[in-house]
Fold this sequence. Notes:
By secondary structure, chain A is an alpha+beta fold. Chain A has helices spanning 3-19, 26-35, 43-56, 79-110; strands spanning 24-25, 59-64, 72-77. Chain A is built from four helices and three strands, in the order αβααββα. Chain B is mainly alpha-helical. A three-stranded antiparallel beta sheet of chain B has the order 6-10-11, with no helix packed on it. In chain B, strands 1-2 form a two-stranded antiparallel sheet. A two-stranded antiparallel ribbon of chain B has the order 3-4. In chain B, a hairpin with a 5-residue loop joins strand 7 (271-272) and strand 8 (278-279). In chain B, helix 1 (5-20) packs across helix 4 (61-72), helix 6 packs antiparallel against helix 7 and helix 6 (99-132) crosses helix 8. Chain B is elongated and about 95 Å long. At the A-B interface, helix 3 of A face helix 1, helix 2 and helix 4 of B.
Amino acid sequence: MDTTQLLKGVLDLAVLAVVRDEDGYGYDIVRRLRVAGLDDVGDASVYGTLRRLYQAGALKSYVVASEEGPHRKYYGATPMGRELFETWVKKWRGFAEAMDVLIDARGMETA
Amino acid sequence: MSTTMPDTTGLDADRYLKEVAPYLGAVSAEERAELLEDLAEHLREIAAEPGPPLAERLGSPEAYAAELLASAGVTATGAPRQARLARVSSVIARVRASRIGREATRLGPVLRPAWWVARAYLVVALLASIEYGSYPGFPVPHLAGSSLVGLIAVVLVVPLSVRLGQRHLPRTGRLMAIGANIVLAIFALVLLGKVRSRQVIYVQPDGGVSQNATGGCLTNSSGENITNLYAYSPDGTLLDPVLLYDQDGQPINNLCPDFDDQGRPLTNQYSQDVNGAPVYNAFPRRQTVALQADSGSQPAPPGANVSVPPPAVVVPKLAPTTTVAPSTTTTATTAPPG
C-alpha cells in the first residue's frame, strides 16, 4: 500500500507530535519525522500542513536569525494545538485499535 | 557548511520556486502571492541545508506543488479549471517524456536566450516592414529612413526582450507573450522565404503581411513581369540612378526581377544609401544573368554571370511645351530617403 496515502490522514497528528515538546523549523521537522520512521514523508506535505495548522491557530511561528544561512521560521504548538493533539491522539488510538482488531481477526480467519 | 553557500543555494531555491509557481495557478491571486512568498523563504531554508540540489531532494516541481496544495488545504478557485489544467499538464508531461520532448527540454533552456535576441530583431524588422510596406534594409532593418535608427532600435529592444524572457509573467501576460512569439515566428518564416526568393514583402492595406506573388508584380501590357526600369533624358542619355515614386510618394519597388524573358534566373544588385541599406526604388538595378550549361550550344562554365545591358531605345524628340508638366514636379514629401 502506498504509505503517502496513509500519511495524508495522520500528518496533522504527526506534525503536532513532533513540535509538541520542542519547536522546530520546516526542514528540521521533516528530519524528525523521518528519523521517527516516516521515511516517505515529503517536504511539500509537511510544509503545507505547517501552514494549515498555523492558519488554524494550532501552531505559532517565529523567525530566528541565522548567521550562516537564511533566517529560519520556527513552529511550536499553541495551547489550542496541544488540545487538538490530545483529541486526535484519542481518535487515533481508537482507530488504530479497531484496525488492529480487524487485521488480526481477518488474519486468523485466513490462517 | 561553508559561508559561501547561501549565494548558490539561494539561486537553487529561486530556480525551484520558479518551476513550482506555475503549478500553483489554481488558487486565488492573493493566496498565491502569499503562498509563494512563504515558500520562497522555506525553500531557501532547505537549500541552505547540506545536500543535493533541491530538484533532487524535493522531486518534480509539479508533484511538489500538488502535494503542497493538497496538504495546505488551499481552496482552489474553480475546480473545473484546475482539472483542465491538470489534463493539459499531463499531455505536456507525456510530450516531454518522449524522445523529441526530452531533447527539446534539454536544448530549450540553452536556446531560449537566442530566441530572446532573435525576437527583438524580428520586432524591429516587423515595424520596418509596416512602415515601408516592404522590408528594405535586410539584414539591418531600415527604420525612420535610416538603418542606423533600425540598428539602435534592435540594440535597445534586445535587453527588453531578454528581461521579459527572464521575468515570471502572470497568466495573462504569459498568454500574450506566447501569442506575440507565435506572430513573430510566423513573420520570421515569411522573412526567410523572402530572403530565399529575393522577393519583397508587402503589407496589405488590412495589415496582413503577404509575399509578393502574382498580383504585386509590375507588369507590361502583355502581362509579363517588368524586371528593370530605365530612365532617359530627352537627349537620349541614360539616367543612372533615378529614384522612382508613385503619385502617393510611395517608392516604386514592386518589380519581380527573378527571371529574364528566357526564363534564366536574374541576380539583382541594389543601390545603397549612405548607411549601406539597399534602396529598392533606385533604377536601373544592376542585374546579372546566370548562364546555364544547357541553354546554348556552347557549354558555359558553371557559375558564369553576364551583366544585363540596358535596352537599345530610340527616344522621341519632345516638343518644348511638354517637358515640364506642373503635376509631375517633385514635392518635398517625395524626397529620397537618407
